[in-house]
Amino acid sequence: MVNFFYDKSPIFLQNILISLKGIQIYRQRYNKHYKKELNTLLKSNEYQLQEKRLKQFIKFARKNSRYYSEALSGYKRNIGLSDMHNLPVLVKDDIRQNIEDIVTRKKNLIVMETGGSTGKKLKFYTNPYDISRRIAYLDYFKLKHGVKKGMRRASIGGRVFIPTNQKSKVFWRHNYMLNQVLFSIFHAGTENIKYYVEELNRFKPKSIDGITSVIYRMAQYINENQIKLTFKPIAIFPTGETLTDEIRSEIEKAFGCKVFDQYASSEGAPFITESADGNYEICPATGFYEMEHIEGNIYEMYVTAFYTTTTPLIRYKIGDAVELFEPLSENYKQSDIRIKRLIGRNTDYLMSNEMGKVYNVNLASVARQLGGNIIESQFIQNELDEIIINLVVEKEEDKKIIEKNLHKVMNIRFGQSTQYVINYVDRVEKTQGGKTKLTVNNLE
Question: Is Ligase given among the entry's keywords (predicted)?
Answer without folding.
Answer: yes
